Amino acid sequence: MLVDIHPGRQGGTRSNLSGNLAYTSFLPGPMDGLLPLNLDPRVSRLISDCRAVLGEVEGMSRFIPNIEMYLSMYVRKEALMSSQIEGTQCTFDDVLDPEKEVNASRDLTDVVNYVRAAEKATKLLGEMPLCLRLLRSVHEELLSGGRGSDKTPGQFRTSQNWVGPNGCTLSEAPYVPPNVEDMHTTLNDLELFINERDDLDPVVKAALVHYQFETAHPFLDGNGRVGRLLILLSLMNDHALSRPMIYPSYELKRRRSDYYAWLMKVRQTGDVEGWVAFFCECLLASARDARDSMRSLVNLRAESEALIREKAGRATTNALAVLDLLEGNPIVDVSFIAERMGMSRSGANAMVSQFVEWGLLEQREGQKKRYRTFTYEPYLKILRAGDEPL
Q1: Cα separation, 214 vs 165, whole angstroms
Q2: In order of start, what are the domains of the chain with their CATH numbers?
Q3: pLDDT category, 171, cuts 50, 70, 90?
Q4: Is residue 33 within 8 Å of residue 270, measured between CB atoms?
Q5: Across residues 29-55, what is the average pLDDT?
Q6: How many other CB atoms are found less than 10 A from the CB of residue 4?
Q7: Is the bond preceding residue 36 a cis peptide, omega within 30 degrees?
Q8: What is the pLDDT of residues 283-308, one digit of tens each?
Q9: Which among 372, 377, 321 is positioned nearest to 351, based on CA atoms?
């Protein structure tokens, strides 16, 4: 059954059908009705701190030569964290491991699809407004060929859905999103809000946009993942970020129970200010981790380059090229190095042995003599932080 809703600026409820088929769904109010917000000084400071850290990350990115490589890893980290909120069990190493067969793991497919969806979203954001058409296209990519591929990828739902424990029925569900007609009204209002309300701080706006999208729950599957990607897209659309340089799901995953509880509390009581405070706490923690990780990656690069220049001698140019390769592919084998570098297998093997000796590569399953794989362990140690499945 739909939990108790106290009608207010967040909306109310709608009675649907009759007799044995009767049920109640949530009826969101217009987004402008959520405003103005009465934010206390603590939340205002959180917002200011968020903007400051986002600015730091943005500024750092302009002076890092290989920033695209790091950002591709950040996209993968966000994909993993967001998917883990939904129960995905793979790790960061799984996502990067070339030996892992995507088709052999639905969890891994989910993450790989999310990476593709995020990359597509970023590209589309440069070609069109942040609109419903863009979100449908991203959703189609997200569910393509994986779990949920039978749930009309790229299409808004045409039937009632509900949110609750596995196996619960519509009549038992603690949350029943708006019916189809109300859903479309809510989405059209959301699209206008995204593109016409330019008087709000981008962090506050991202909080409200994410809440309303999750409340509309417009897809049969994948709403959480699209909604969390929408946080990044909203920040980029409002020029708080130029690219996906943070991973918002990092802290939302750690505080998953509170995250779901706050979304529900807004629907029940209209406590939008409390949600904004919670959202800002999570965004700030995630942004700080992304900033600190970026600093660590830059420092590691400088240390690794210095070590190579000291140790590699005449092979310095090739060794630096291998280092570039490892930043995009931190789990490798000798054949991969040979193929990508245009080296003989014996030359690649010698280079890998040197990197192991210098402490830059570490052999996995250290006793294996054949089919050995190696990890750029100092690099992965930075990026793995928080990647444990729930």
Answers
A1: 17
A2: 11-293 (1.10.3290.10), 312-383 (1.10.10.10)
A3: confident
A4: no
A5: 97
A6: 8
A7: yes
A8: 999 999 999 999 999 999 999 999 99
A9: 321
Max Cα–Cα distance, the chain, nearest Å = 83
Sequence length of the chain is 390
Residue 314: other Cβ atoms inside 10 A = 7
Give the residues across from 26 on adjacent strands: 13
CB 57 within 8 A of CB 294: yes
The pair phi, psi for residue 22, each rounded to 5°, is -65, 140
Mean pLDDT of the chain: 94
For residue 13, what are the β-bridge partners? 26
Interhelix angle 180-196/132-143, rounded to 10 degrees, is 110
Pairing of strands 374-375, 331-332: antiparallel
Question: What pLDDT was estimated at residue 367?
Answer: 63
DSSP-assigned letter for residue 29: P
Kindly state the average pLDDT of the residues 241-248.
Answer: 95
pLDDT tens for each residue of 341-375: 999 999 999 999 999 999 999 998 766 667 789 99
Matching residue, tokens 């793995």: 384
For residues 80 and 114, give the distance between their C-alpha atoms in angstroms, rounded to a whole number. Answer: 8
pLDDT over 90, % of the chain: 87
Q: Is 38 helix (H, G, I), strand (E, B) or coil?
A: coil
